[in-house]
Design brief:
The structure is a homodimer. The first copy, chain A, contains ten helices and 14 strands. Chain A is of the alpha/beta class. In chain A, a hairpin with a 4-residue loop joins strand 6 and strand 7. The longest helix of chain A has 22 residues.
């Protein structure tokens, strides 16, 4: 414990220490079974209890109604980028994609590979390096589109949809980097998908939440079985061997999240963290330059900024490390500093960073 | 430690306790980083060392030449069942599949979904409930086939190819349930793939070993990126976020395997275990009836047998459990008892079981 650092990695990222301690305590003997949870058959009742609890906690924390299925798959958002068009868009159905960053663009490109001209860009801020989100007036939604795909938080660029895009179409959304950061109404979503490795658990688990009418739209009987959402839904994500240990850690994280007051409490923490961090950036706006150009689009999960020089950036990273803070180096295409403040990063962690940033600005500004 | 049971599950299955202890010791602080290995970015040097070591140990233990790529993917054998025909068989190339059990049949069906009549069954023992392997004289290899697919060990039925099928075609092989049970020459293999959850580590990691000429045969530029072997090979399995914790456990298991003498030592243990277990079955052949009809085809990984009645079977399972042995219930379609004796099951574990079986036969025979 004493040696734990403050972890600002963009993903895989820090997890609640209580969830990890629970795993450590029972790593050789899970729930009195005499086995690690990773050594237990996925058909055994001891594992099944973990699987069901992970699914139930997801439903409870997010308030997911019964007309949605919750799936625990593999392959991260990347495999979902492909599975969504393979299941939904090969037979002429149309969809719109809003491209707001590196990951949103990947989702769009993967959909085009499968569905060609049936998918189009409803808006893009690429000309502005994705440094802001499109405004409502910039969205050009195809009336024939079956859904609008968007990326709720742009991990690389540090923008986030605080109000979801204005459209009456169902959403399909990559929420990998901000799922469960706050409560929200899932009903307008046809599909929510998220790699676990930012807000939920370790890499190797993908959470997919799918509305029943979207599941019914899947026309994919000629696809290999693993790629068919319907099969996973019918078999409760036990069609094949699931990533059992990853799901167990997800369960631990969700149980911890519930114990601290659920998504409302988590949202309050995230908002405090954002106030502290953006407050510091705004105060020292001559020294720390924000990458994002519209304040309304600022992400509460990833905060990108630049220092006056590359030398100072390198010094910032190395001095932060000496002070027990890691993972601050910016994404390779953007540079500068990126602070990822996912759910497991505490308000105190951010206070420590902000104190350091104040000092650093005074000394070098 | 004192509470550990003897684990005969068919997968996910027991792992070497040393590999688990190592994980437990550093679960909150990996290698002095102040983080769990699952909290570290997959682009950080601390994770990279684990990734590279897992790959290097795989090469070293199996003696894999430099004209093969080693990949660490997700989705288990199930996703590989689809990826192989999607990458190799959509443009008219032909392949033969030998169906020798439940899993071999699944591989064949998935290939047919993608490639239709371009894949055929080179042999099947389904008419005999897969209770033996086809003989060399029964194999009907299509001269036009680019490869012959087989399943090296049939987990459900308990048969194993001790000598690989007689053909001069390259093999494509699902080795999920017996990879690394012994040394063998990989050169005739175009692709070897294996879900980790039997001999290698936790579920959620898939090992794929692919010969360069097979990689070159992949014609898949219209496939979603996650499904393209070439992309994973070019990016050293870091195209997307890999299942980092699972790969770390794989590394721990492989490092342990090396420390005990590598695959030669493991093979010697596996042969001793087989002698003990099959010796007991043969000695009590009137009481324990083997499912497999040909002794030459008996698996050293999964041993299926029946007791005289369902009542005795249930008693066997429950009394074994009282004696600290779990996972012995047979596969649902076959019934009876299945003893899975993967690499992590020790000779002493099997001795304990055999002593119990001797007693049980005496008391109830």
């Amino acid at each position: 414990m004493t040696n734990r650092v403050i972890n600002f990695y963009a993903g895989p990222a820090g997890l609640p220490v209580d969830a990890l301690k629970r795993a450590q305590d029972e790593l050789l003997d899970f729930a009195g079974t005499g086995m690690s949870v990773m050594e237990i058959s996925h058909r055994a009742k001891e594992y099944d209890a973990v699987h069901e609890e992970a699914l139930a906690l997801t439903r409870e924390l997010m308030g997911i109604p019964s007309n949605f299925k919750v799936l625990l798959l593999q392959g991260g958002a990347h495999l979902s980028f492909g599975m969504i068009p393979l299941n939904l868009l090969r037979k002429g159905r149309k969809a719109d994609y809003i491209t707001t960053g590196n990951w949103a663009e990947k989702a769009f490109k993967e959909a085009k590979l499968v569905a060609g001209d049936n998918v189009r860009e409803a808006a893009s801020t690429k000309a502005e390096k994705f440094a802001r989100l499109p405004k409502a007036s910039e969205l050009q939604i195809n009336p024939e589109a079956a859904f609008v795909h968007f990326t709720s938080n742009n991990t690389v660029e540090g923008t986030q949809w605080h109000d979801f895009p204005k459209t009456d179409k169902p959403y399909v959304c990559d929420m990998s980097s901000d799922i469960m950061w706050r409560p929200f109404d899932v009903n307008q979503f046809g599909i929510i998908y998220a790699g676990a490795q930012k807000n939920l658990g370790p890499s190797g688990v993908t959470l997919v939440i799918m509305r029943d009418d979207f599941l019914e739209m899947c026309e994919a009987q000629d696809l290999p079985s693993y790629l068919r959402f319907k099969i996973h839904a019918e078999k409760n994500s036990l069609y094949n061997t699931p990533p059992t240990f990853g799901i167990y850690i997800l369960r631990n994280v969700l149980a911890y999240n519930k114990s601290i007051g659920g998504l409302k409490a988590i949202e309050a923490n995230n908002r405090k963290k954002g106030e502290l961090l953006y407050g510091c950036l705004d105060k020292h706006a001559g020294f720390y330059k924000s990458f994002v150009t519209e304040k309304a689009d600022r992400s509460l999960m990833n905060v990108d900024f630049f220092l006056p020089s590359e030398e100072l950036t390198a010094t910032f990273v190395s001095e932060a490390k000496k002070n027990g803070m890691v993972g601050l180096k910016g994404y390779r295409d953007i540079g500068g500093i990126r602070v990822s403040t996912y759910n497991a990063v505490t308000v105190d962690n951010v206070k420590t960073l902000v104190d350091f940033m104040e000092e650093f600005a005074k000394k070098n500004g």
